[in-house]
Write a structure and sequence with these properties.
Blueprint (H helix, E strand, L loop, with lengths): L2 H53 L4 E2 L6 H8 L37 E4 L12 H14 L8 E6 L7 H23 L6 E5 L19 E6 L2
Parallel strand pairs: 1-2, 3-4
Antiparallel strand pairs: 2-5, 3-5
């Protein structure tokens, strides 16, 4: 090899070495990026089901789900024997008996319970117009033949903001507001409804304490 060839080959070899070094570094960076992305994706995939589980509430009825038929279906349980045939009282009639399933399937675990997104003004137990519309649907459901012979617990729930004692007091007042509205506007007997404040002790969404689903009213059917 002559001197001229050596002069031309040396720079080319140097460039090739630099290129190879740069390519190796790029490959390493790409591998690290892929590894990090895979780790983050896996962590997110694991966190999503956990969060979904914490916020899931199969008994929560919202928006268009709040219908008379859905409420009756959620709250209906096996009917009580009820008073003698033909005996009725204002707001309290013998319920149409719900026969146990003959298929051998177990009863729904959520039977006799429904949660409603009943909204209130901040730090208040006054019902909003939207809440009254929901309670009107509830009132008609509670007076239906399938539910007329039952009593109900009206549980008020609050989110976890503020002091626990105040949340308990406010949830009790809200439960009483719901019961009072149903009694005054739908003719239910007071003895059919027992308001009970639960405060912030039973959060539906524990990952977001101020979530609207934590501020709710739950209706629970009680056998007489």
């Amino acid at each position: 090899m002559n001197s001229r060839s050596k002069v031309l080959t040396a720079p080319m070899a140097l460039l090739a070495a630099k290129w190879a070094k740069g390519a190796a570094a790029s490959s390493l960076m790409l591998a690290v990026a892929v590894l990090l992305f895979g780790t983050v994706t896996a962590a997110h995939a694991q966190s999503v089901p956990a969060q979904a589980a914490s916020t899931a509430n199969p008994n929560m009825l919202k928006g268009a789900q709040v219908t008379e038929a859905n409420l009756i279906d959620a709250l209906a349980i096996e009917g009580p024997e009820g008073p003698a045939s033909g005996a009725t009282t204002r707001g309290f009639r013998p319920a149409a008996r719900v026969e146990p399933s003959k298929s051998g399937a177990p009863a729904k675990p959520s039977a006799g319970k429904a949660s409603l997104q009943v909204t209130f003004n901040t730090n208040s137990s006054d019902l909003t117009a939207e809440s009254k519309a929901i309670l009107d649907t509830l009132g008609r459901a509670l007076q239906s033949d399938r539910l007329a012979g039952f009593a109900f617990k009206v549980e008020g729930h609050a989110d976890a903001r503020g002091e626990a004692e105040r949340n308990l007091q406010l949830s009790q007042q809200r439960a009483e507001s719901v019961a009072s509205y149903l009694i005054a506007n739908h003719g239910l007997l007071p003895e059919r409804l027992t308001p009970l404040g639960k405060g912030s002790t039973e959060l539906v969404n524990k990952t977001r304490i101020d979530a609207p689903e934590n501020r709710r009213v739950t209706i629970i059917t009680v056998r007489n």
